[in-house]
Amino acid sequence: CFQLEEFEQIDFLRDRHVRFFQRTLQVLPERYASLETTRLTVMFFAVSGLDVLDALDVIDRNNMIEWIYSLQVLPTEDQSNLSRCGFRGSSHIGIPYSVKGPGVLHPYDSGHVAMTYTGLTSLLILGDDLSRVNKQACLAGLKALQLEDGSFCAVPEGSENDIRFIYCAACICYMLDDWSGMDIQKAIEYIRGSMSYDNGFGQGAGLESHGGWTFCAIASLCLMGRLEEALSQRELDRIRRWCIMRQQSGFHGRPNKPVDTCYSFWVGATLELLDVFQYTNYEKNRNYILSTQDRLVGGFAKWPDSHPDPLHAYLGLCGLSLIGEPNLRKVHPALNITQRAFQHLQQLQQTWRDNAGTCT
Amino acid sequence: QHGRVKIKSTAQQEEEKRKEREKKLKIYVAARDACFSKRREGVWDDEALQLTQQLLSSNPDFATLWNYRREILLHLETVREEDELQKIYEAELSFLESCLKMNPKSYGSWHHRGWVSARLPRPDWARELSLCDRCLSLDDRNFHCWDYRRMVVKMSGVPVDQELQFTDRLIGSNFSNYSSWHYRSTLLPLLHPESPEPPSPCQQLLKEYELVQNAFFTDPNDQSAWFYYRWLLGRAEREEMISCVYVSREEERVVVAFSRPVNVSAFTLIHIWNFVHFLTWTQICDLPPGTISDITNEHNLTVHWTEKHTHRDCALYTGRNESWCRDSATDQELFSELSVEKTSVLQSELQSCNQLQELEPLNKWCLLTIILLMRALDPLGYEKETLAHFQTLKEVDSMRSAYYSDLCSKFMIENTILKMEYAEVRVFSISDKKLTTLCHLDQLLLVTHINLSSNLLQRLPPQFAMLQCLEVLEADNNCIENLEGLYHLPKLEEVYLKNNKISKLADLQPLVSCPKLKHLDLRGNPITETTNIQSELAELLPSVTDLLKSLIH
């Protein structure tokens, strides 16, 4: 009897997680109000989470695709707002619902780099062919966000600028198969400048090393295809060492901090990209992630006995996928979507290239 | 989405909470709509300040509202007197303090505070520093606060040594303060900008060693001090250069090895050759037939790496079939992670660490550091101790034992390279050393014989193809299932792969591109169980004459 209980404690409750994400896509509790402006990212967590669980059939894909397109900030008739294009986080500004152009000029409406990133990935996951995405406008909007030092702001109005948004920009360019949206060399300089004395990466120059920012740095360089050019072998070895030392049971994001489920992905994926994930201890990692599983409502939390939330629910799944948990789709460690969605992207890109070839 | 611990409550409490929430929601939505319509109309008045304040109190991450507030403040700057502005901005700072109390990790709040501090007519930097002190005393890892503090220090011109003293205080009261060590690492180079290496070897450095030693002697299990220590001991990156040039009359080719993988876009060889590149440690240049084949001719080759403004000369003498020019790994101190300039300093550090190790034999950080120091001082001399320490390390930190095996393999390979150089031979032999991985293959360009038998290798990676001089490969008794690196090896004649895990014909495909291959030993591999294996092998590798013998069990 005691043995059965023990087993129940570490089994993976797939159906609960499917329902958790379904609920996320319907209604969120009031304490999530502060995420209103970034609602599209919450959708990404749920949709990609369902993809990892191979449960996309439980949602109405077409409806979602329409909603995402309604968030696209499209060029106006006279194209005067090109540098403000992209995707917005939700309808919180009050632009009337519309899925097609031309765009409506509104002084405070603009794309947000993280929303453009999650908007595009969500569309891909839902099976869309991106044909209604105004790629040139997105890239123009992206270009406008890059600063002299190579980092990106989130919105053209101005915001903090750091390595997170470089990652978003790299994903956007990678997906659209067009790097004209950013100055790669400057971005690489900023990334290099963010490397700390202990060979972790901070949010920017002089800032403390952190597992999340290290992921942004390495994943960006991989997407750009510049990992071994930008970093020497010695540096890569030290980055590996810093990351490997983050495993305590699960992973933490910085030395002397408690472990947190989401770092099983941030640090795990970084180690995978650096080809040393196989040196981590899968059992301890798995046990920690599952200890944060909410057995009643589904999802995962950052710590045991805490409330689950979409971000940790999604990244917990990704962390399990990295260690090969059965019945979970494999996740692409740089782009952070399933390999299935990634293959869909590759097919799309092949079609774009073929069409470009045949056009005169 | 910061951690929220679960608290149970009664049904009645739940109902009351729900009513509260609904009320708040109504007020919130009304305020938000009022705000937006005001902004749309371009209204920048006190009511607008009030409304945004209300909204931001409950949601400090609503970036648009901070932007609107900044617009209002900018407008007020044009119509109010300096004294009034001072009061307005001071009120802003108070408001921000209450926002930060509620959510000390809000990007919006910190960003706005930075903006306000920069615009205040009479800033009170001491007050800002004290805010940071209070914030850090509650959470000394809050990087938002650290970043803000850095900005304040910069704007107010606090001298670097004063900040160093600040870190002294923090570290003194609590050694386990990773953020303080980190901050210190950014301050030290500012004090000694002339030095190319971080930081310059001098009084300051010795003081740092003492400080960090106090830290890890006090709490040897805390990572902070160890990472900092490793940084102090470290050395600057080497210059990029051409590490080896090899010329062969027979293959009529020049092989160039670099100190790191390069993307060589325009490669000029003896003013003849430009050709396409890929990211690789070595570049192989095939010369036009007849260029160097006449053994009675002498040739002086120069390889230019134009991008890095460096070059290498190599002379191919009359009567000689091959020639080379190579940096010695020993002379280059290629494998030392640490700065070897001050051997005496490293000696004394090793002594201290050994002392600690006696007190704390199970401490992994100490073991790792000792290994590093030994490798810097005398890698060959300390080989036995290093292997013993790795054994302990794998027991003490078993979670990472695979990583340590890999690291140990790397060190053993480095030692073998050093021994090979000392013996001045072209034979690389490292058997029965529990090798789990291969590395530094770029250093083996000139090797003719390799013995990797009785190890734990699973593959011969693509970089193996750099071993352009290889004639004999012994790799019996491993777990090799993948031979992807054994392609285009022009001199390879004998390959011994007894007792490995080669399982299918496709695994042997790379060998087809090795024109001189005569002998192949596949005994004890799963592939020998395949039906018709003899005829299939004969078809795939017709010039391998010694195959049949290898299949007689």
UniProtKB/TrEMBL annotation, chain A:
<keyword id="KW-0637">Prenyltransferase</keyword>
<keyword id="KW-0460">Magnesium</keyword>
<dbReference type="GO" id="GO:0004662">
    <property type="term" value="F:CAAX-protein geranylgeranyltransferase activity"/>
</dbReference>
<dbReference type="GO" id="GO:0046872">
    <property type="term" value="F:metal ion binding"/>
</dbReference>
<keyword id="KW-0808">Transferase</keyword>
<protein>
    <recommendedName>
        <fullName>Geranylgeranyl transferase type-1 subunit beta</fullName>
        <ecNumber>2.5.1.59</ecNumber>
    </recommendedName>
</protein>
<dbReference type="InterPro" id="IPR001330">
    <property type="entry name" value="Prenyltrans"/>
</dbReference>
<dbReference type="GO" id="GO:0005953">
    <property type="term" value="C:CAAX-protein geranylgeranyltransferase complex"/>
</dbReference>
<keyword id="KW-0677">Repeat</keyword>
<dbReference type="InterPro" id="IPR045089">
    <property type="entry name" value="PGGT1B-like"/>
</dbReference>
<dbReference type="InterPro" id="IPR008930">
    <property type="entry name" value="Terpenoid_cyclase/PrenylTrfase"/>
</dbReference>
<feature type="domain" description="Prenyltransferase alpha-alpha toroid">
    <location>
        <begin position="12"/>
        <end position="337"/>
    </location>
</feature>
<keyword id="KW-0479">Metal-binding</keyword>
<dbReference type="Pfam" id="PF00432">
    <property type="entry name" value="Prenyltrans"/>
</dbReference>
<comment type="subunit">
    <text>Heterodimer of FNTA and PGGT1B. PGGT1B mediates interaction with substrate peptides.</text>
</comment>
<dbReference type="InterPro" id="IPR041960">
    <property type="entry name" value="GGTase_I_beta"/>
</dbReference>
<keyword id="KW-0862">Zinc</keyword>
<comment type="similarity">
    <text>Belongs to the protein prenyltransferase subunit beta family.</text>
</comment>
Automatic annotation (TrEMBL), chain B:
<dbReference type="InterPro" id="IPR036254">
    <property type="entry name" value="RabGGT_asu_insert-dom_sf"/>
</dbReference>
<feature type="domain" description="Rab geranylgeranyltransferase alpha subunit insert-domain">
    <location>
        <begin position="242"/>
        <end position="329"/>
    </location>
</feature>
<comment type="similarity">
    <text>Belongs to the protein prenyltransferase subunit alpha family.</text>
</comment>
<dbReference type="InterPro" id="IPR009087">
    <property type="entry name" value="RabGGT_asu_insert-domain"/>
</dbReference>
<keyword id="KW-0433">Leucine-rich repeat</keyword>
<dbReference type="Pfam" id="PF07711">
    <property type="entry name" value="RabGGT_insert"/>
</dbReference>
<keyword id="KW-0637">Prenyltransferase</keyword>
<dbReference type="Pfam" id="PF14580">
    <property type="entry name" value="LRR_9"/>
</dbReference>
<dbReference type="GO" id="GO:0097354">
    <property type="term" value="P:prenylation"/>
</dbReference>
<dbReference type="GO" id="GO:0005968">
    <property type="term" value="C:Rab-protein geranylgeranyltransferase complex"/>
</dbReference>
<dbReference type="Pfam" id="PF01239">
    <property type="entry name" value="PPTA"/>
</dbReference>
<dbReference type="InterPro" id="IPR001611">
    <property type="entry name" value="Leu-rich_rpt"/>
</dbReference>
<keyword id="KW-0808">Transferase</keyword>
<dbReference type="GO" id="GO:0008270">
    <property type="term" value="F:zinc ion binding"/>
</dbReference>
<dbReference type="InterPro" id="IPR002088">
    <property type="entry name" value="Prenyl_trans_a"/>
</dbReference>
<comment type="function">
    <text>Catalyzes the transfer of a geranylgeranyl moiety from geranylgeranyl diphosphate to both cysteines of Rab proteins with the C-terminal sequence -XXCC, -XCXC and -CCXX, such as RAB1A, RAB3A, RAB5A and RAB7A.</text>
</comment>
<keyword id="KW-0597">Phosphoprotein</keyword>
<feature type="region of interest" description="Disordered">
    <location>
        <begin position="1"/>
        <end position="20"/>
    </location>
</feature>
<protein>
    <recommendedName>
        <fullName>Geranylgeranyl transferase type-2 subunit alpha</fullName>
        <ecNumber>2.5.1.60</ecNumber>
    </recommendedName>
</protein>
<keyword id="KW-0677">Repeat</keyword>
<dbReference type="InterPro" id="IPR032675">
    <property type="entry name" value="LRR_dom_sf"/>
</dbReference>
<comment type="function">
    <text>Catalyzes the transfer of a geranyl-geranyl moiety from geranyl-geranyl pyrophosphate to cysteines occuring in specific C-terminal amino acid sequences.</text>
</comment>
